[in-house]
Structure formats: structure tokens, C-alpha cells
Design goal:
This protein has 202 residues and is α+β, with helices and mostly antiparallel strands. It is built from six helices and ten strands, in the order H-H-H-E-E-E-E-H-H-E-E-E-E-H-E-E. Helix 4 crosses helix 5. It is globular.
Length: 202
């Protein structure tokens, strides 16, 4: 009898908890923020399938506020698509690039635009304020007109893959800085943001 009483007493609490979860999800949708599960699925799309389950994800529990939705287990971090943007654009990169990436986000949020973002970041890297990776760091992105959460498909999508090697040059990599559709090339040589571009048509 006491056990039955405790179970019955707990039912209203459980019901209220379920209702709160439903209301929370509904309020997110009302704000234009997709449910967390949908953000997780969309955020990891740029990655190879074997890396998706272990990747950390930064997304939105509140409109306009980027925060951690899932910690990384494999050294990769993904940024969920910003629901405030018309296009679908998730990005995933090595966690070692996060100090550099996070600084870029904070500068843009404060009103810094265009090349000025890198001007500030490069100076801060030189001053030791931003730590850069010592090993190559991959970045995967998807650009698309839209994303269907129900089917997991994108419309007019294209992929981008780059490998960051801070301060790399043509001499250290043996790569040209001339864009090519048939071979990798080096962008921003000699800077903290130096990276190798790989064409999707290769």
C-alpha cells in the first residue's frame, strides 16, 4: 500500500515534467529555433559519417545565443546552422581551432567586419593572446539553400574541405597559391589562418 501511494504521488510530478519539456520545445519552435535533436543532426552533416557521433556541437537553446549542445569525444567541434540566417551553413572543425574561431565570432558580434576580423586576430596570435594548433586542423563545411530536417537532405548544397596549417608557406608545403580545380592549393600563406584548399570536384 505505501508503495502504491508513493507511485501515485509521483505521477503528477512526472506529468508536470513532461509538460514542461513539451512547452520548452514549443517555445523554441516559436522562436524559430529547431529542436536540439534536429540541430545535432544538421550540424554534423559536413563530417564524414564515422566522425559524426563523436563530434561536439554548438547550437541554440535560445534564439541568438550559441552554446554547447553536446561535448566533443573525438576532437571535432561543429557549429549548428544559425536559424537567423536564410541559408543552411553548418561547419565542423578541429577543437584546437576553437580559440581562433571563437574570437572571430566575438569580434563580429561586436561589430568588426570583413578583413578587420583577421587583422585583429592575427595581431592577437602574434601577441600570444590566441593559441593556435601545432598540428594540421581540418575544417568541413556545407553551404546550401535549405535543409529538410525530416529527411536530412539539403537543397543545392556544396561542400568545402580545408586543412589549417598556421604559418604554412609554398616553400614548406610545396603547394601553389593559385586556385585550382584539379589539385590542392594554399591560401593566406604565412599567416595564422594559412590553409590548404581542396576542391569538391577533385
Amino acid at each position: 500500500m505505501p508503495v502504491r501511494f508513493r507511485l501515485r504521488a509521483a505521477l503528477p510530478t512526472l506529468a508536470l515534467g513532461a509538460l514542461a519539456t513539451t512547452l520548452s520545445a514549443s517555445s523554441l519552435v516559436a522562436q524559430g529555433v529547431p529542436p536540439v535533436a534536429e540541430q545535432l543532426a544538421g550540424a554534423v552533416l559536413p563530417l564524414p559519417k564515422e566522425l559524426r557521433d563523436g563530434a561536439g556541437v554548438m547550437g541554440y537553446r535560445t534564439a541568438g545565443k550559441l552554446e554547447q549542445l553536446r561535448p566533443s569525444k573525438n576532437g571535432m567541434l561543429c557549429l549548428a546552422d544559425d536559424p537567423a540566417e536564410a541559408k543552411f551553413h553548418p561547419a565542423c572543425y578541429a577543437e584546437t581551432m576553437e580559440p581562433f574561431m571563437a574570437r572571430g565570432r566575438s569580434l563580429r558580434a561586436a561589430g568588426t567586419t570583413g578583413a578587420n576580423v583577421d587583422t585583429v586576430r592575427f595581431a592577437e596570435v602574434k601577441a600570444g593572446k590566441i593559441k593556435m594548433p601545432t598540428n594540421p586542423a581540418a575544417l568541413y563545411q556545407v553551404f546550401a539553400d535549405s535543409y529538410d530536417h525530416a529527411t536530412g537532405t539539403v537543397k543545392n548544397g556544396r561542400q568545402l574541405f580545408v586543412v589549417y596549417i598556421p604559418f604554412a608557406t609554398s616553400q614548406t608545403t610545396g603547394l601553389s597559391t593559385v586556385p585550382s580545380s584539379t589539385q590542392p592549393w594554399l591560401m593566406l600563406p604565412g599567416t595564422p589562418k594559412a590553409h590548404i584548399m581542396f576542391s569538391a570536384s577533385m
